[in-house]
Design goal:
With 361 residues, the chain is mainly β. It is built from one helix and 28 strands. It starts with a strand and ends with a strand.
């Protein structure tokens, strides 16, 4: 495991981005949808020259568009995906699958340290913390099976590797004792179920059966505590958020054999003590959810291919939807939800990536 340490100086410059911020104070009217509040966000983006960066955006809204002051930015070797708070001013940036690096970033000093991935596994873009351990979802390169890498949260050194009892593990959550009826804290992992091959990058082998599932794992031993699946095996369970009621919302992506089936597929599933089920009201948005966030009322889903965002209650009933071209990244604070989007016809100087974190608002 190689660690590449470097110090990046702060850079301050103003850019006009095509990102949108929406305030979803539910129930919602179209007139109240645009948020003009200032926000400080940790985000990743692509520049017009194709390079990737991560950094801090000071964002001010006006008439639905955000002016971003990039207060701190560092270069990345390839496209990133997940972002996670470590401690204090330190955050973790994870390469997009099939990824080969982790980056520790201090947003105050700009200092970074990079860890290169072992060759026998690739990173799948997400992580979680529990106690002194940091977990990353990964795929075994030769076998194609999903694994959870257990790391030292301070050094990122590898300590163990556990099976996720599925393929293509993506996001994971740490849930408390009593969650979903399990009498101890546990890791909830979304196995996307998509087959890939080491020599084909992100190419999906859709002719093979999918094996998407949610699994609960013991955070100290990796023991399988429970496993849930849907009857429709072509729905890939990917991103998750937890409602205050304890219900877990899961954003899905459909991989059916025809576009018609994909377009009609639901994009939201719900997990509670009674089991895993789809939300029928989430169907008909082209079968692709980019991200999910929880609010006091329920869940917000970014429907990327449908150019929209949809809000549901905790039981899966649709409360509101609105136009949001290429909607994806979500961050929430109470009833306020910040949604990254690209208005049609506007050329972005920053092409925002799939996820961002709200630092302050």
């Amino acid at each position: 495991m190689a660690i590449d340490s470097m110090l990046n100086s702060r850079r301050q410059f103003l850019v006009q981005s095509s990102a949108l911020v929406f305030s979803l104070a539910l129930p919602l009217s179209a007139e109240s949808a645009i948020n003009t509040r200032h926000a400080r966000l940790l985000a990743a983006w692509q520049l017009p020259n194709g390079a990737y960066q991560v950094g801090v955006l000071n964002s001010a809204g006006q008439a639905g568009a955000l002016s971003h002051a990039v207060r701190m930015a560092v270069d990345l070797p390839t496209r990133p995906h997940g972002l996670m708070h470590l401690q204090g001013d330190e955050y973790l940036v994870i390469a997009r699958r099939p990824g080969d690096w982790l980056l520790r970033l201090n947003i105050r000093s700009g200092e970074t340290s990079r860890v290169w991935q072992e060759e026998d596994r690739h990173l799948n873009g997400h992580s979680a913390l529990h106690g002194d351990r940091l977990y990353t979802t990964e795929t075994d390169v030769l076998g194609g099976t999903g694994v959870l890498a257990v790391r030292n949260r301070h050094t990122l050194e590898l300590q163990d590797v556990w099976p996720t009892h599925g393929k293509d593990p993506h996001e994971m959550l740490v849930l408390p004792k009593g969650g979903l009826g399990i009498d101890e804290p546990f890791l909830l992992v979304a196995n996307g179920g998509i087959h890939t091959h080491a020599d084909m990058g992100r190419t999906q082998l859709n002719q093979l059966p999918m094996d998407s599932s949610l699994v609960a794992l013991h955070p100290r031993t990796g023991q399988l505590l429970n496993r849930w699946t849907l009857s429709d095996s072509r729905l890939s369970l990917r991103h998750m958020a937890v409602h205050t009621s304890g219900v877990v919302g899961i954003a899905m992506q459909a991989h059916h054999s025809t576009f018609a089936l994909q377009d009609a597929a639901p994009v939201l599933a719900l997990l509670d003590e009674t089991g895993l089920r789809v939300a029928p009201d989430s169907a008909g948005v082209k079968g692709y959810a980019g991200d999910i966030a929880s609010t006091p009322e329920g869940f917000v889903i970014s429907c990327t291919k449908n150019d929209s965002a949809a809000t549901f209650d905790a039981l899966g009933s649709l409360l509101h939807s609105q136009i949001a071209p290429a909607a994806c990244a979500l961050a929430a604070k109470g009833e306020q939800v910040w949604l990254g989007s690209k208005p049609a016809g506007v050329r972005a100087q920053l092409e925002l990536d799939n996820h961002w974190l709200l630092l302050s608002a």
